[in-house]
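We append the chain.
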Amino acid sequence: MLAQLKRLGGDSLLYALMNVGTKLIAFLMLPIFTTYLGKEQMGVLENTDAFTSMLTFLVIFGTDSALAFYFFDTDKKELKISYVQTVLQFRLAISLLCLIGAIIGGEWVSVLVTGKSGYAFVVIAAMVTLVLESIITLVLTYYRYEFKVKKVVIYTVLRLGGAALFAYIFLKMWMEEVDVIYYGRNIAAGVIVVLLLPELFRLVRIKVDKQKLWAILKYAAPLVPASLAFWVIATSNRFFLTYFEGLGSAGIYGVAVKFATVITLLTSSVQMAWRPYTMSIKERPDAEKIFSKFSIIILVGGILGLLGIATFIPYIFKFMISDPEFYSASHYIALLSAGTFLNFYYLIISVGLFIKKETKYISVYFIAAAVISLVLNLVLIPLMSLWGAALAVVISYLFACIMIFRKSQQVYYIPLPVGKMVFLFTTGMIAMGTLVWVHIIELPVYYLTFPWLFFAATFGVSRVLKEIKS
C-alpha cells in the first residue's frame, strides 16, 4: 500500500505543481482581463469559451477513457501507439470540421453564442484554438499514459504561460478587445505544436485502422451523452444568464467560475494521475481496499479545500480585482467550487463502472442531471439571479454523484463507510455556507472560526480517520 501511495503521490505532486503554475497564470491574467475588457467583453469571452468547451466534448467523444482502457489492456508497444494514432485521426477530423463550420457561418454562430453580431472573428479564432489543442492534448495524454510526467508539465506550462503573455501584450499594446486573447492562445499553441513535431511525425498516420476506430468509438460512445450533459450543467447557465440578464451577468458569473477553479489545485492533479493509476492496478487482489482509502482521503481533502476557499477567497478577490463592478462575483465562488469538486469526485467513486466497462450508466445519470440543471436554471435564475445559476450546478452534480456511486457499487463493490462520508459532506457544506454568510453580511473576522470549529468537532465524531488507518 505504501509503495502505491508513493507512486500516485509522486505523479500527483508533479501534476499539482503544474496545476499550481497554470492556475497562478490564470489568476494573474484575470485582473488584466477585467481591467481591459469590462463586463460585456468578459461575457463574450465566457460564452465563447463555453461554446468551445461543448465542441471539445464532441472532439474528444469519450476517446480519452477508451484510450486509457485499450492502452493499458496490452503490453505491446506498437499496439499502444496504434490506438493513439487512431484517436488522433478522429479528433483532428472533428476539430477541422468545427473550424470549417465557423468559417462558413461565423456571423450566425456569433449571434447564437453571444446574442450579438460582430464577433465572427472571435468564433473562428476559438475554433483554430480547438484544432491546435486537440493535437496537443492527445500527445500529452500519450505522455501521461507513458508516465512521462515531466514532459506533460513542461509543455502544459509553456502553452498556458505563452498564451497569457501574448494576450497581455496584445491587450496592452494593440487593442482592448476579446479577439486578441484568442490570437495569443493560437500563437502559444502553435509554438507547442512545432516543438511536438518529432512526436507527431511518429503518431500521425493517413490510413485509418477501421477496426481499432470502431473498438474505441464503441467503448467511448456511451460516454458522449455524459460529456454533453456535463457541458449543459457546467456552462449552459451562462447562456441563460445572457438571455435573462445580459452579457454583463454572464461576465460576472464567469469571473466567479474562474476563481472557483482554485479547488482544482486539489483535484485536477489527482484526476490526471487517477485513471492510468487505477487501470494499472485493477488486477491487484487488494485493489478494492486501495480505492476505498483513496476515496475517503480525497473526500476529506476536498472538504477542507472548500472551507479554505470560503474563508480566504473574498480577501484574495478584492486584492486582485480592482474594478468594483466585479466585486459581487466573490459571493458565489465557494458554492461554485463545491460544484467543481463534485464534478471531479464522481470520477473517484465510479471507478468500478470504468473497470467493468459499464460506462453507459454514467451517461444515463448525467443526462438526467442535465435535464435537472436546465429546469433549475429556468426556474432559479429569474428568482435568484447568479445564486440560482450556482445552485443549479451544485444540485445537478450532487444528483449525478449519488446515482453513479450507487450503480458503481452494484457492479464493483468497494468497502466504503457511506454513512460517515455523507455525514462529513453534509457538515462540511453547512460550515462552508456559514463562512460565505459571514462574509456577505460582513460580520467580524473572528466569526469565521466558528464554522471551522463546528466541522472539526463533526470530523472527530465521525471517526473517519479510523477507516483510513485500518
The chain has a mean pLDDT of 84. The two ends are 12 Å apart (CA to CA). The chain has one domain: 2-416.
